[in-house]
Amino acid sequence: MRDDIQHIWDQPPVVHYVGVDGRPAKHIFDFLVTKADGERIAVAVKPMQRVIARNFLSELERVAAATPKQFADRVMLITDQHVDRAAAAAAARQLARTRPTLTEVAA
């Protein structure tokens, strides 16, 4: 529902990086967002409890360092603490009104 978002790619290709243990690892971002100005943002979505319990920020820093600039300009973490439930519900209602084929999904 944002005018500055041109495209959202769900589950874009894997990014290879070196894990904390020094071994090869891979990460699949939840979304790759392309903004109207061309900026590409690789988005990881995780519950805050998991971010803390698994020290996910440390892992994401390694992933971000290994993310090719051709893939994404920057990396972003979104947790359940970032979500405004009222705004999300309003966006779902707006999508249902403007895109009738999504009504069942948004309901």
Notable features of this structure?
alpha+beta, 28% strand, 107 residues, globular, 4 helices, two-stranded antiparallel ribbon, 4-stranded mixed sheet
Write the layout of secondary structure elements.
Elements: E1 5-10, E2 15-18, E3 24-27, E4 31-35, E5 40-45, H1 48-53, H2 56-66, E6 74-78, H3 85-98, H4 103-106
Parallel strand pairs: 5-6
Antiparallel strand pairs: 1-4, 2-3, 4-5
Describe what this molecule looks like in 3D.
- This protein has 107 residues and is an alpha+beta fold.
- The protein has a 4-stranded mixed beta sheet, with no helix packed on it. Strands 2-3 form a two-stranded antiparallel sheet.
- The protein is globular, with a radius of gyration of 16 Å.
- The two termini are 16 Å apart.
Described by strand count, sense and barrel closure, the largest sheet is: 4 strands, mixed
End-to-end distance: 16 Å
Mean pLDDT metric: 87
Indicate the structural class. Answer: alpha+beta
- Share of residues in helices: 25-40%
Beta-strand proportion = 25-35%
Using DSSP, what is the number of strands?
6
Strand order of the largest sheet: 1-4-5-6
